[in-house]
Amino acid sequence: MTETRTAIVTGSGRGIGAAVALRLAKDGHKVAVIDLREEDTTATIEAINAAGGQAIGIGADVSNSDDVAAAVARVTEELGAPTILVNNAGILRDNLLFKMSDGDWDAVMNVHLRGSFLMSRAVQAHQVEQKWGRIVNLSSTSALGNRGQANYAAAKAGLQGFTKTLAIELGRYNVTANAIAPGFIETDMTRATAERVGVPFEDFIAHAVSEIPVGRSGKPEDIAAAASFFASEEASFVSGQVLYVAGGPKG
How far, in Å, CA of 123 to CA of 107, rounded? Predict the structure, then answer.
Protein backbone atom coordinates (compact mmCIF):
# COMPACT_ATOMS: atom_id res chain seq x y z
CA MET A 1 0.00 0.00 0.00
CA THR A 2 1.27 3.46 -0.94
CA GLU A 3 2.21 5.66 1.98
CA THR A 4 0.33 8.95 1.89
CA ARG A 5 2.63 11.87 1.10
CA THR A 6 2.06 15.54 0.40
CA ALA A 7 2.65 16.51 -3.22
CA ILE A 8 2.94 19.89 -4.92
CA VAL A 9 2.19 20.18 -8.63
CA THR A 10 2.85 23.57 -10.22
CA GLY A 11 0.90 24.81 -13.22
CA SER A 12 -1.80 22.28 -12.41
CA GLY A 13 -4.90 24.31 -13.17
CA ARG A 14 -5.27 22.49 -16.49
CA GLY A 15 -3.59 20.24 -19.02
CA ILE A 16 -0.66 18.05 -18.04
CA GLY A 17 -0.40 19.56 -14.56
CA ALA A 18 -4.05 18.87 -13.80
CA ALA A 19 -3.70 15.26 -14.97
CA VAL A 20 -0.62 14.78 -12.81
CA ALA A 21 -2.33 16.27 -9.76
CA LEU A 22 -5.37 14.03 -10.21
CA ARG A 23 -3.20 10.94 -10.70
CA LEU A 24 -1.13 11.62 -7.57
CA ALA A 25 -4.35 12.12 -5.62
CA LYS A 26 -5.64 8.79 -6.94
CA ASP A 27 -2.34 7.26 -5.82
CA GLY A 28 -3.33 8.29 -2.31
CA HIS A 29 -1.35 11.49 -1.86
CA LYS A 30 -2.55 14.86 -0.59
CA VAL A 31 -2.05 17.39 -3.36
CA ALA A 32 -1.38 21.12 -3.47
CA VAL A 33 -2.58 22.45 -6.80
CA ILE A 34 -0.59 25.57 -7.66
CA ASP A 35 -1.31 27.92 -10.53
CA LEU A 36 -0.77 31.60 -11.18
CA ARG A 37 -4.24 32.48 -9.89
CA GLU A 38 -5.98 30.51 -7.16
CA GLU A 39 -9.29 30.60 -9.05
CA ASP A 40 -7.62 28.69 -11.88
CA THR A 41 -7.13 25.70 -9.57
CA THR A 42 -10.86 25.20 -8.95
CA ALA A 43 -11.56 22.64 -11.69
CA THR A 44 -8.62 20.47 -10.65
CA ILE A 45 -9.58 20.66 -6.98
CA GLU A 46 -13.15 19.67 -7.80
CA ALA A 47 -11.97 16.70 -9.88
CA ILE A 48 -9.72 15.50 -7.06
CA ASN A 49 -12.48 15.91 -4.47
CA ALA A 50 -14.96 14.08 -6.71
CA ALA A 51 -12.53 11.17 -6.90
CA GLY A 52 -12.27 11.07 -3.12
CA GLY A 53 -8.91 12.79 -2.81
CA GLN A 54 -7.68 15.68 -0.68
CA ALA A 55 -6.33 18.87 -2.21
CA ILE A 56 -5.91 22.60 -1.77
CA GLY A 57 -5.51 25.29 -4.40
CA ILE A 58 -2.92 28.03 -4.17
CA GLY A 59 -2.28 31.01 -6.41
CA ALA A 60 1.43 31.74 -6.81
CA ASP A 61 3.95 33.02 -9.33
CA VAL A 62 6.64 30.33 -9.17
CA SER A 63 9.25 32.79 -10.43
CA ASN A 64 8.69 35.01 -7.37
CA SER A 65 10.60 33.88 -4.29
CA ASP A 66 8.14 35.45 -1.85
CA ASP A 67 5.20 33.69 -3.54
CA VAL A 68 7.06 30.39 -3.45
CA ALA A 69 7.96 30.72 0.24
CA ALA A 70 4.36 31.60 1.12
CA ALA A 71 2.96 28.74 -0.97
CA VAL A 72 5.23 26.09 0.51
CA ALA A 73 4.54 27.38 4.03
CA ARG A 74 0.79 27.12 3.43
CA VAL A 75 1.09 23.61 2.04
CA THR A 76 3.11 22.55 5.07
CA GLU A 77 0.55 24.04 7.45
CA GLU A 78 -2.56 22.67 5.73
CA LEU A 79 -1.44 19.34 4.24
CA GLY A 80 1.87 18.52 5.93
CA ALA A 81 5.48 18.72 4.83
CA PRO A 82 5.66 18.38 1.03
CA THR A 83 7.98 15.59 -0.12
CA ILE A 84 6.79 15.18 -3.73
CA LEU A 85 7.33 18.09 -6.12
CA VAL A 86 6.33 18.19 -9.76
CA ASN A 87 7.68 21.30 -11.52
CA ASN A 88 5.25 21.57 -14.40
CA ALA A 89 4.49 25.32 -14.64
CA GLY A 90 5.41 26.67 -18.03
CA ILE A 91 4.59 29.24 -20.69
CA LEU A 92 5.24 29.71 -24.39
CA ARG A 93 6.58 32.86 -26.05
CA ASP A 94 7.42 31.35 -29.44
CA ASN A 95 9.14 33.34 -32.16
CA LEU A 96 12.02 33.05 -34.57
CA LEU A 97 15.27 34.30 -33.09
CA PHE A 98 15.37 37.60 -34.99
CA LYS A 99 11.82 38.40 -33.82
CA MET A 100 12.24 37.24 -30.22
CA SER A 101 12.20 40.07 -27.68
CA ASP A 102 14.13 40.32 -24.44
CA GLY A 103 10.81 39.91 -22.67
CA ASP A 104 9.99 36.72 -24.61
CA TRP A 105 13.30 35.22 -23.50
CA ASP A 106 13.16 36.34 -19.89
CA ALA A 107 9.53 35.31 -19.30
CA VAL A 108 10.16 31.73 -20.44
CA MET A 109 13.41 31.42 -18.49
CA ASN A 110 11.82 32.85 -15.35
CA VAL A 111 8.87 30.45 -15.24
CA HIS A 112 10.61 27.26 -16.36
CA LEU A 113 14.08 27.57 -14.87
CA ARG A 114 13.87 30.10 -12.06
CA GLY A 115 10.49 28.69 -11.03
CA SER A 116 11.78 25.13 -10.85
CA PHE A 117 14.86 26.31 -8.94
CA LEU A 118 12.86 28.28 -6.37
CA MET A 119 10.31 25.51 -5.83
CA SER A 120 12.96 22.81 -5.56
CA ARG A 121 15.06 24.82 -3.13
CA ALA A 122 12.04 25.45 -0.90
CA VAL A 123 10.75 21.87 -0.95
CA GLN A 124 14.10 20.11 -0.56
CA ALA A 125 14.38 21.42 2.98
CA HIS A 126 11.33 19.34 3.89
CA GLN A 127 12.53 16.36 1.86
CA VAL A 128 15.93 16.34 3.54
CA GLU A 129 14.30 16.63 6.97
CA GLN A 130 11.93 13.75 6.17
CA LYS A 131 14.78 11.75 4.55
CA TRP A 132 12.51 11.02 1.59
CA GLY A 133 11.66 12.95 -1.52
CA ARG A 134 10.74 12.93 -5.19
CA ILE A 135 11.31 15.80 -7.62
CA VAL A 136 9.89 15.50 -11.13
CA ASN A 137 10.70 18.23 -13.65
CA LEU A 138 8.84 18.67 -16.93
CA SER A 139 11.24 18.98 -19.83
CA SER A 140 10.20 18.49 -23.47
CA THR A 141 11.32 16.97 -26.75
CA SER A 142 11.89 20.62 -27.68
CA ALA A 143 15.05 20.36 -25.56
CA LEU A 144 16.53 18.69 -28.65
CA GLY A 145 15.84 21.85 -30.66
CA ASN A 146 12.67 23.20 -32.24
CA ARG A 147 12.18 25.98 -34.78
CA GLY A 148 10.74 29.14 -33.24
CA GLN A 149 11.47 28.02 -29.69
CA ALA A 150 15.01 29.15 -28.87
CA ASN A 151 13.84 30.28 -25.43
CA TYR A 152 11.63 27.25 -24.67
CA ALA A 153 14.18 24.74 -26.02
CA ALA A 154 16.98 26.30 -23.98
CA ALA A 155 14.85 26.28 -20.83
CA LYS A 156 13.75 22.67 -21.31
CA ALA A 157 17.33 21.56 -21.98
CA GLY A 158 18.42 23.50 -18.91
CA LEU A 159 15.90 21.60 -16.81
CA GLN A 160 17.61 18.35 -17.78
CA GLY A 161 20.95 19.57 -16.44
CA PHE A 162 19.20 20.93 -13.36
CA THR A 163 17.54 17.55 -12.78
CA LYS A 164 20.79 15.61 -13.03
CA THR A 165 22.50 17.98 -10.61
CA LEU A 166 19.68 17.68 -8.07
CA ALA A 167 19.98 13.90 -8.32
CA ILE A 168 23.68 14.11 -7.47
CA GLU A 169 23.26 16.57 -4.60
CA LEU A 170 20.15 15.12 -2.97
CA GLY A 171 20.61 11.39 -3.47
CA ARG A 172 22.30 10.92 -0.08
CA TYR A 173 19.10 12.14 1.57
CA ASN A 174 16.92 9.52 -0.16
CA VAL A 175 15.64 12.16 -2.57
CA THR A 176 15.42 11.37 -6.28
CA ALA A 177 15.13 13.82 -9.17
CA ASN A 178 13.97 12.87 -12.64
CA ALA A 179 12.61 14.62 -15.71
CA ILE A 180 9.84 13.80 -18.15
CA ALA A 181 10.18 15.07 -21.71
CA PRO A 182 6.78 14.93 -23.39
CA GLY A 183 6.39 14.83 -27.14
CA PHE A 184 3.18 16.01 -28.79
CA ILE A 185 0.45 16.12 -26.13
CA GLU A 186 -3.10 17.36 -26.79
CA THR A 187 -3.53 20.33 -24.44
CA ASP A 188 -4.78 23.91 -24.49
CA MET A 189 -1.16 24.92 -25.05
CA THR A 190 -0.79 22.89 -28.23
CA ARG A 191 -4.22 24.12 -29.36
CA ALA A 192 -2.97 27.70 -28.91
CA THR A 193 0.11 26.86 -30.98
CA ALA A 194 -2.10 25.58 -33.78
CA GLU A 195 -4.14 28.80 -33.67
CA ARG A 196 -0.97 30.89 -33.71
CA VAL A 197 0.27 29.24 -36.91
CA GLY A 198 -3.21 29.33 -38.44
CA VAL A 199 -3.85 25.59 -38.66
CA PRO A 200 -7.07 23.86 -37.52
CA PHE A 201 -6.31 21.85 -34.38
CA GLU A 202 -7.51 18.59 -35.98
CA ASP A 203 -5.08 19.08 -38.87
CA PHE A 204 -2.33 20.05 -36.43
CA ILE A 205 -2.91 16.79 -34.53
CA ALA A 206 -3.05 14.73 -37.73
CA HIS A 207 0.30 16.08 -38.91
CA ALA A 208 1.89 15.36 -35.52
CA VAL A 209 0.48 11.81 -35.46
CA SER A 210 1.88 11.12 -38.93
CA GLU A 211 5.38 11.44 -37.45
CA ILE A 212 4.76 9.46 -34.24
CA PRO A 213 5.70 5.74 -34.47
CA VAL A 214 2.86 4.50 -32.24
CA GLY A 215 0.37 6.30 -34.46
CA ARG A 216 -1.47 8.44 -31.95
CA SER A 217 -1.11 11.74 -30.16
CA GLY A 218 -0.20 11.94 -26.50
CA LYS A 219 -2.69 12.68 -23.74
CA PRO A 220 -2.00 14.41 -20.41
CA GLU A 221 -2.69 11.08 -18.69
CA ASP A 222 0.34 9.57 -20.47
CA ILE A 223 2.57 12.08 -18.69
CA ALA A 224 0.70 11.60 -15.41
CA ALA A 225 1.47 7.87 -15.52
CA ALA A 226 5.19 8.57 -15.83
CA ALA A 227 5.04 11.11 -12.99
CA SER A 228 3.22 8.56 -10.83
CA PHE A 229 6.07 6.09 -11.32
CA PHE A 230 8.81 8.61 -10.57
CA ALA A 231 6.95 9.66 -7.39
CA SER A 232 6.53 6.11 -6.19
CA GLU A 233 8.39 4.03 -3.63
CA GLU A 234 9.34 1.60 -6.40
CA ALA A 235 11.32 4.28 -8.23
CA SER A 236 13.82 4.76 -5.40
CA PHE A 237 16.74 3.50 -7.53
CA VAL A 238 15.87 5.70 -10.52
CA SER A 239 17.36 9.18 -10.36
CA GLY A 240 18.86 11.74 -12.70
CA GLN A 241 16.99 10.30 -15.66
CA VAL A 242 15.18 11.97 -18.54
CA LEU A 243 12.23 9.93 -19.82
CA TYR A 244 10.99 10.85 -23.28
CA VAL A 245 7.25 10.17 -23.41
CA ALA A 246 6.74 10.81 -27.09
CA GLY A 247 5.40 7.69 -28.78
CA GLY A 248 8.80 6.84 -30.21
CA PRO A 249 12.54 7.24 -29.67
CA LYS A 250 13.91 10.65 -28.86
CA GLY A 251 17.05 11.92 -27.23
Answer: 23
